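Entry type: protein chain
Record version: 2
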Amino acid sequence: MTGGTKKILKKLACVYISILFMTVSAKATLVNSNSIVQDNIEYYMQTNKDVYDLGESVELLYRVTNLGEEDVTIHFTDQVQHYFTIKHGEYLVWDAPKVGQPAGSKLVLPPSGYKEYTETWDMLDNQRVLIMPANYEVTGSFHPFLLFPEDDDKYVPVSVQIEIIPEPCTFLLLGSGLIAVLSYRKMKNSSNTYT
């Protein structure tokens, strides 16, 4: 092996270790959550973490807990009660669930009672196109269009931020390619000086 080849291999190893370290440390997080308490009800939103590789599934949880001492009843005009949105800036990227059958439903929460709603987002937008790496706002709430008017005060959206990063192999390929191009240029320049 020539000295130039050894240097290239050392650089590649350093890039690989750096990328591996950044990826592991960025993803070594616990759940990502936020909550709001209003009128003795806790509205809680959670994702299973805050940094994702592109293409990973994002687990969403919206929970409503009665912190009061009396039952709380919430009426809906549909069987669908909850609503999740994913936004990039002001742009609505994805939402779920879609409106169900128009048949009223209600949720009764006894003291200390709670109801959890879950969805999984596959990082595809509403047109079923894979999204780009970026920061996104994830929001959970009761469905704003399906609450009875007397329960409008129960529309309390709760948001968390997530970051979607390119896959680690993308970084590795880009880094390897950059080092290869730079090394090629350096070898080409050094061979031109001796001729």
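Comment: The helical segments are 3-27, 168-193.
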